[in-house]
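for the writeup, i need someone to sanity check this before i put it in the appendix. the sequnce is what the collaborator sent (i think, or maybe the updated version? ugh). structure was predicted straight from it, no edits. if anything looks off just tell me and ill rerun, i have time this weekend
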Amino acid sequence: MKTLLITLSTFLVAGMINAQDTSKVETYKIAFFSKDASGVFKEMKGEVVTNDDNTPTSFDLSIQTASINTGNGVQNKHAKSSEWFHSEKYPDITFKSREIVTNDEGVFAKGDLVLHGVSKAITLPLTVSSNETNHVYKTKFSVVRADYKLGPKSKVSPSIKIIAAVTIKK
């Protein structure tokens, strides 16, 4: 079974997180890995709104699909094609939170993931951590490719595992 793994790391170079502060992601690194291919998305936009204890109150991301780079021109063209991300028709992969829930089990961003033109309600588990210079918001989840009409029906894993880390400089 093949699994596609997307890792998203972002770094904001300026801005302080305060009560209901909005921080836009300005620099980033987005990588994806699978048994057969790996690479990066080179363009992303995002916004994290937090309260005074750095718990997010809003978590939104937009990844530009045409920015995919696998290190292989033929693979790049295939990944951007209608069989996979269809970058011309669907230029962005987006997650827009509707609600952030905090309970005994953790922090969760409830919202809509739009991938390959299909929008689905999804809940992202978030971990929030801080060090001396950064606040880090991480999530790890899976989506079923068929739900988003992404990729061929066979030959690859039926799900995509996504790991994202958004780092905001204090």
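Residues 73-80 form the longest helix (8 residues). The radius of gyration is 16 Å.
thx in advance!!
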